[in-house]
Amino acid sequence: MPQIEEAQPKYLQIAHYIRDQILRGDLRPGDEVPSERQLAADWNVSRPTAARSLQALSHQGLVEKRQGSGTYVRSLEVNRRARELYGRARQTGKIYSPGEYAVITSAGWLEAPGHVAEALNLAKDRRAVHRRRITNDQSGPITLSTSWFPPEVGQRAPKLLDPERIQEGTLMHVEKMTGRRGSYAEDRMCARAATEEETADLRLAPASPVLIVHHVVFDLQDRPLEFTEATYPPDRWAFEQGYPLG
Predict the structure, then answer these.
(1) What is the pLDDT of residue 192?
(2) Per-residue pLDDT tens for 63-114?
(3) Domain residue extents for the chain
(4) Is the pLDDT of residue 6 over 60?
(5) 209 in Cβ contact with 192 (< 8 Å)
(6) How many Å apart are CA 232 and CA 214, to the nearest integer?
């Protein structure tokens, strides 16, 4: 169990820990979250502090309290960001939670588009390895994404060229094969109308709004390791992020 840090209110640290479990898929809709008594014992805090953490999760729409029963994870129409996916992969060895799966629609060497070449610092040779996938759950397609890797990564991680799924996720596989560990990432987001291809793959109405996320992972030497462009349908736009004010 993580230790309490003084830099952030105790109740928020507990709430964020449980929130991350929910967003990773470790706690699924309908699962019961620890009670006030259990949280107070696990985190060595008072019952009021534990109760406030559950209240914070309720205000975020992540849990609901059932009278006489307990507190449970709500049914969520949100999509997990890369941060939650990486956390799950590092803890469980699997990138997706139960009920989710990816279909790899193409993989191999391609000339990278200009914005990808710039993100990966590709100079004269703009050939890169790509993996395009549609992620699904029981409701259908939930994300369309294409990951791109520099040539030196593609040469050392040939499994990226195979259209078979990589259970632990591409980043964990790249780290294992290259010895380069992801250190930090940057995300840029914008919204626009879906293209014809996105409309077909995500089963959307024509001209539906979609959220576009450009995600770049850097290694410990600040070198780009992976660039991913992800497209989210309109009912998957809810992302949670907490931060201090002051």
Answers:
(1) 94
(2) 898 888 899 988 765 555 666 666 655 666 666 677 888 899 999 999 999 9
(3) 10-73, 82-234
(4) no
(5) yes
(6) 12
If we measure between CA atoms, which residue out of 122, 92, 88, 72 comes closest to residue 227? 122
Buried b (16+ CB within 10 A) or exposed e, 164-202: eebebbbbbbbbeebebebeebeeeeeeeebeeebbebb
Q: What b/e string do you get for 42-55 counting C-beta neighbours within 10 Å, with b at 16 or more?
A: ebebeeebbbbbbe
Exposed (0-12), middle (13-18) or buried (19+): which is 129, by Cβ within 10 Å?
Answer: buried
Question: Quick check: helix, strand or coil at residue 148?
Answer: strand
The kind and range of the H/E element at 134 are: strand 127-137
Q: Which two tokens stand for residue 84?
A: 């939650």
Q: Dihedral (C-alpha) 221, 223, 229, 235: value to the nearest 10 degrees?
A: 10
Q: Show the CA angle centred on residue 220, arms to residues 216 and 223, nearest 5°.
A: 50
Strands 209-219 and 224-232: antiparallel
Global pTM value: 0.70
The architecture CATH gives domain 82-234: 3-Layer(aba) Sandwich (3.40)
For residue 158, the tally of other CB atoms under 10 A from its CB is 10
Q: How many residues does the chain have?
A: 246
The encoded tokens of residue 185 equal 């990432």
Let me know: does 65 contact 57? Beta carbons within 8 Å. no
Region 10-73: CATH code: 1.10.10.10
- pLDDT for the residue numbered 81: 60
- Contact of 93 with 168, CB cutoff 8 Å: yes
